[in-house]
Amino acid sequence: MSKKNSVFIATSIDGYIADKKGGIDWLHAIPNPGEDDMGYVAFMKDIDALLMGRITFETVCGFDIDWPYAQPVFVLSNTLDEIPESHTGKAFLVSGTLSGVLNQIHTKGFHRLYIDGGTTIQSFLKEDLIDEMVLTTIPILLGGGAALFAELPHALKFELVGTKTYLNQITQRHYRRKK
Predict the structure, then answer these.
(1) Is residue 125 in some structural domain?
(2) 73, 49 in Cβ contact below 8 A?
(3) What's the number of domains the chain is made of?
């Protein structure tokens, strides 16, 4: 089974994934009356499991919606002691080095992972563990907040696989790691 770590995330034009207060309401700056999923459903069909950071997990748990994932969610955290009872069987706590965490998840039979959460994505990029990224840009400048990218030990080359435009406003670029 081939292994793949993928990112599917939205950013502001200036590269932020949350505003200065940690908010994400700006993601809805462009009206989407037809509720276009912008490729998310197709992306998720190719995913075995999700690996997200604690902050992202807590953010999703705070949404006033049913649990949105059919696949298992692994929560990467060095501070959480347990998953809330409401999410037992849906989310699983993992910790340790990224290679160790990946080994734990791969041993359970999950090989095509959706990596989510700013700090988690940055950590995976620092260790060159991201194989593809789907970056959706919302046409807004936030001027600060949680950045998607951080300093890297060396440059990572990606190739553009495709570009799409949604709602005549939102651009989406699909990149594959070039090794």
Answers:
(1) yes
(2) yes
(3) 1
CA distances from 11 to 18, 80, 86, 125 (A): 8, 27, 30, 16
Q: What confidence score (pLDDT) does residue 65 get?
A: 85
Does residue 138 lie in a domain region? yes
CATH number for position 41: 3.40.430.10
Mean pLDDT over residues 2-24, rounded? 96
Tens of pLDDT, residues 135-163: 999 999 999 999 999 999 999 999 999 99
pTM: 0.94
Residues 6+ apart with CB under 8 A from 22: 145, 146
Give the pLDDT confidence of 28-71 residue by residue, as tens digits: 999 999 999 999 999 999 999 999 999 999 989 888 888 999 99
Q: Is residue 152 part of a domain?
A: yes
Count Cβ atoms within 10 A of the Cβ of residue 35 and give its class: 0-12 exposed, 13-18 middle, 19 or more buried: exposed
Residue from 85, 101, 102, 47 nearest 69 by CA:
47
Q: How far apart are the first and last CA of the chain?
A: 19
Dist. CA 70–CA 48, nearest whole Å: 9
Closest CA to 135 of 32, 36, 12: 12
